[in-house]
Every structure is written in structure tokens, then in C-alpha cells.
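Loading example: each entry is read as three labelled lines plus one structure line.
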Amino acid sequence: MAALLIQLGLPDWLAWAITAGIAAALILNVIAVGALVFIWAERKIAARIQDRLGPTRTGGRFGWLQSLADGIKLLAKEDLMPEGADGLLFRLAPYVSFCASFCAFLALPFAFDVVAQRLNVGVFFVIAVLGLEVFGVILAGYASASKWSLFGAMREAAQVVSYEVPLGMCVVVPVMLAGSMDLVTIGEKQSGWATNWYLFHDPFTFVVFWVYFTCAVASVNRAPFDLAEAESELVAGFHTEYSGLRWSFFFMAEYGSMFLVSALAAILFLGGWNGPIPLATLIGLSDGAGETAHYLARLLGCVNLLGKATLGVLVMMWVRWTLPRLRIDQVMTTCLKYCTPIAAVMFAGAMLWTLAFPGGLFHGGRRPAGEVREGWLSAVDAQPSLVARSAAVVAAAGVADRAGLRSTVSAAPAADGVAVEGVGAREDGGAWGAP
Amino acid sequence: MSGGSWGAGGVAALIAFGPFSEPVTVSHYMVVGAVMFVAGIVCMAVKRNALGVLMGIELVLNGANVNFVALSSPYLQANGPGLGLDGQAMALFVILLAAAEAAVALAITLNFYNNHATVDVDRAEDLKG
Amino acid sequence: MTGHSLLGAALPMVAAINWHSLFFLLFASLACGFALAVVFTTNVVRMALHLVLSLAATAGLFFLANAEFIGAMQLMIYVGGTLVLLVFGVMLTAQQPFVSIRTSARDQVLAGVAGAATLAVLLVAVLSVGRWGLPASGEVDAPTATPLGMALLGVRVDAAGGGHSGFLLPFEIVSVHLLVVLVGAAYLARAKRRRTPRPVDVLASADPPLAPRPAVAVPGGVTRGASRSALVGSGDAAGGGA
């Protein structure tokens, strides 16, 4: 995009600024429009599960304008602040939550290379920034000067800090399989048929996915883990005292986070933008087919990822309206006595499985061609020297054997340590794509 | 040209040829580290709330981390990376140990609060001779 | 006309901006400013908020210095973990809403003088090393996450680390240390049985009913003890309306 604008004759900085603005606007729209759609969907789903109709009037038969009408109502509401509240923190808290949710989208790829900022430590960044959302909730609970809010905030703090542990362990498993923390690389390693998804890589990753989903639901505070806003005990928890636009910011943050963890699940376990069937490749939209095909393939990838993420959000809604809320001690038990040990054991299991069958469940002992750990190794691969090549073969053939790696790297002159980021990811894709 | 445009042009010139056009070096980072370090030290000295002291410690550790990262960065130095990866690894360990330290310090603070109903460090004088 | 000439004059100047420096100055001023704000604020929760912002800005500085992994670590462990714990501690120990404990003016002046002296010494020391003031010559783009991970496992793959060993031993020591700390913290913060009423409870009974008193509700420890009954609430929380 920026390159395109630079070609048009714009100065570099202007091109980058425009690109950044467009990316930010797009992400903001994904969150805002997504929240509108998801709130509507939640109301319809909840209604259907409870044998009701849900919104039916606003905007035609299905009431699909209901959220928009609600949004306008929220805009027009009086902005209340309880007496005795800490004004600055009370006003700041919703924006902290929303900013955390928004910033995490920066590193989330929607298709191959369709990402606002491709980060070498993408997964880590997303999880880390998402964890900051809890600050808004804590501040809101504390600044409201209300007991309900404070209890909600305390529960949230305890819950989120605890659930980050198993969540991190689950996320590490696909990272280990892909050999990279770059979300684009992880997604691209699963291209091809559904058998390439890390969900089906081995039995352990299959279990890990469900643990991840449980922890993700808990870390975004959805039922059955929505202790922070348990309306039957805490009125509304941390946002008891909020109304109007600020309250809606909390909700946008919540729905944004839901979408984000679902999209992350899709990229880490469900192949990301690579469908169950490699449709784009089958109809000839591979990268070599020209500019239009290139963009069409990206568009298909976006649709694919958005579909999977939406599916994840819908499942979360289904769970919310099906399961009763846990008590706080049950929430903690679930995390510390079940999720964490299961995640740890599955992590070890997946590691051992990868040692025994590098290709996973469906590809047996056959290691897919073009196994590249990261940029610095592919730079070594490009080196024509026999030593480097043989060392790379050693490194690729077995486990990352230390002697092999050391010789690989020492064989490359220091200048080759300068890496070309993400080289080889796409080439891998082709090899993986063959069923 | 009108006066207004001269003023705006001056601002633009200041932006372009002031500190913004100067490349960042290790010294810049070190200054940031020094400020954070001193802020942490003063915080530790001044605050009577045990948690305030804890925050001061975090600031001090963070100031040190800024220096480690700056010295290890190939972006900032003329003759290649100074500390290389060593600096980053050190920063990593500092972060980990700071987390551990915070957990223990918080547990101690809570215990102290249980016994004294306050977190004022000046009240911890039971062992004073 | 004027606008056009202004734009024409401003464009090349804007183009001359070193964006790395601009963002560095942005993050650096945020980090320093909020670090100072931590010192000058008396309200503990505000202090925690300023500390969060300062450390987050520092994470930005790390990203600018090509230390992505450290930056993400900073965000995750420091900001997302340690500081949440800190705020948690603040809420558990707050005696009145928006607690602040004042220091005597004499102490403040003394600390200010000592701090200024330390800062002066540090700044002179920093600026006296000429090598640190020279900018980098060329563009470098070396991802650091993987080499760092390899180094933690005992294998150095970066150019500068040739001949040096990795960090496997420190890594293991830190892991064991963290485990010990986990056990120790759990032991320290455990709920103890008491026979005599604590000062907290005595204070609680003498309090006006409307003031929020987090400390009273949750005195026992992080999630245990007397806090249980208050935190748990009713068990029949099935479903509930929207």
C-alpha cells in the first residue's frame, strides 16, 4: 500500500502516514461495526436459545438496526458520575480498556500479509496487550467508589492474572510447532487442506485448542466466567456506575477482545486464512497469477479468517446462554487445578509427538519440505557453500540438533546474520499445500 | 508572506531542524534511564506507603533495563552492537526477577497489613532497639 | 496563495524529520514524565496508573531499539502481571477511598536534593562517554527474538556472541528461583487462623456504613480467608438476563 503511494509520487512520510491512517480506520471499523453486529447477533441468539424472538422491529424484519438504535440512545444519555468517585480515573478507565483492545489488533493478520504491523513477536504482543485491558476494568472498579464495582474489579484482576498462565502455555504449542512467533508465519505454515491445521496436528494440540478456548473465554470475561459483572450478585460489577458512551466503550472493548481471541484461535489452530479446502489455490489464485489474483486471494483469506473468528464468537455466545455462571472459587479451581496442568502436559506431549512424527498426525514421519525456522536460517540456506547447505540439511533433518545449528551459523559469515524477515514462508506454503 | 505563515514556517523549521532530525544514540536512552532511575530512588526515599516504595523499586529496575537494551541495540551505536544479545538477556532476567520480587514484596506487605492494619513503612518499628 | 507557499515550505521540512527520533522523543518524554509523576503523586492508585503508563512507554522505547521480545515481555510481565498485582495490593490495603500517606516536608526536600545530585552525576557520566554519542552508521534489521531464545537454551547464533556461551544456567536458576518465589509468596500470603479480633475488624465496626472499605472486605490474603465469603457471593447465579 505504502509502496503503491510512493510510486504515485507522494513523499515517503506522507505515504506512510496515509497508509497508517487507513489501517487504523479499518481496524477501528472492524471493532465498532463488529461490536454492533455481534451485539445484535447475541440478542438474537439469546432469544432463540430462550425460545423468544429477540429484536424484531427496528430496521426491518430481523431487527438488525437494533444495535444502531441502541448506540444512538447511548449517545444521548446523560453522563453520570457518582459522587465521591475519582473523576480522572473514572473518565479514563473505559478508554484504557478500549485502547488495549484496539492496539492488540495492530499485530493481527487478516490474511497473508494483510496486517497493520507485522511483528516478529506477534503472538506474544497480542496476548500481552490484551492483558492490559484488565487495567481499565480495575481502574473503573476502583474509581467508581462503589462496592459492587470494587468487587467486580478484584475478581477480574484475580481471574485475568491467573488465566494468563494457561493461556500462555496453550499459545506456546503452535508457536513451537511453527518455530516462529510471527502470526503471519504461523498462519502460512498451515496452508492447504484442513489436515494441515494445527488443530489436527496431533491429539495433544487438539486438546490444547479446547483448553485455549476455555481460557480465552475466561480472559475476556464472558460467561460462564463473567464474575466481574455477575449481575445476579454485583448489580453489574465493574461498570455498575457507568452509563452512556463510556459504558458502550467497555462493551466495544469486550466484543473487540472476543473477536480478537477468536481470530487468534483461528490463526493458531484453525489454519487462519487458509480454508479447510485450499480454494484460492484450486481456482488458480496463487501468487504467481498476477496482481488481481493476488488481491482476490487476499480477499478470500480475509473472508475465511473473519468467518472463523465470527464462528468462534458465536460459540462463545452459545456457551454464555447455555452454561450457568461459576463461583469465584470454581473459576480459580478450573484455572489452577485443571487448565494449567492439562496445558502443561499437552505442551510436553506435543513436543514429544513433534520429535517422533515431525509431519504431524496426517503426514506421519514425512517432514514437509522447506522447513525454515526463521529468517536467519533461510539466509544461511541461500548461501551456496557446501558446508552451509549440509549444515542446513542437518538442522532440517533432525531435531534442532545443537552441533548442527552451531555449524550452520558459524558457517555463515557475520553479514549473513542480517536476516530477511519471513523469507521462505510463502515457499513453504506451496509445499504444505499439497495434500 | 503574512506573519502567520512565518510563524508556522518557523515551527516547521524548528520541527525539521531541531531535535527531531538528530539521530537517536545510546546517550539518549541513557538519559531516559537515568531519569527513571533517579525518579525511582526518590520514590523509594519519599514514599511512606510500602506499595509506593515497591513502585520506586520497579522504576529503578526499569531504568537499568533501558540502559541494558540501549547498549545491546545495533540501531544506536556506531561500532556495531555493544553488548549484543547479552544486554537483552540481562534485561530479560531483570524483568523476571522484578516480577518475582514484586510477588514476594506484595505478600510481605499484605502480611504486614494483616498485623498492623496499615501499609505505612514507618510503622514497622517493632524490632527497633 | 499563502497557504500554498506555506505547504510548499513545510513539506520538505516535514520530510527532513527523522521519524525514529520523533517517536523516540515521544516515548522518552512519556516514560520520563510519568516516572516523575509517580514521585509527585500522593494517591496510590494514581501512582500505579502513572507507573503503568511509564513502563508501557518504556516498552515502546524497547521496540524502537529493535528489542521486540523484551518490549513484549515488558508489556506482558511487568505491565500486565506485576502491576496488576500491585494494584491488587493497593486495593487490598486501601484504608479510605483514594488513600494517600503524606511525607514530611523535610524528608521531601532532602530526597529532592539527593535525587538531583544523583541525576547530575549520572548525566555527566552518560554524556562523558563519547562513543555512546555517535549514531549508528547504516541500517540494520536483525530479528532478535529467535537468537535470544536460542541463547537462553545455551546456543549462541548471533554474530556478536561468537565464542561465548549461552544462558542456559542462568535460565535454569531463574526458573527455580521463580518456583521458590511462587511457593514462598503463597506461604506468606496464606490465611491464618486468629482467635483475637484484628485491629482491622475493630476499625471496621466503628465505621460509617456508606464509605467503601475494600480493606475490610478482603483482609485475609490474595484470594483466601475472610475474603472468600465476600467474594464468592450467591451460588445460584445461573444465566441471568442481558
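The domain at 16-127 of chain C is CATH 1.20.120.1200 (Four Helix Bundle (Hemerythrin (Met), subunit A)).
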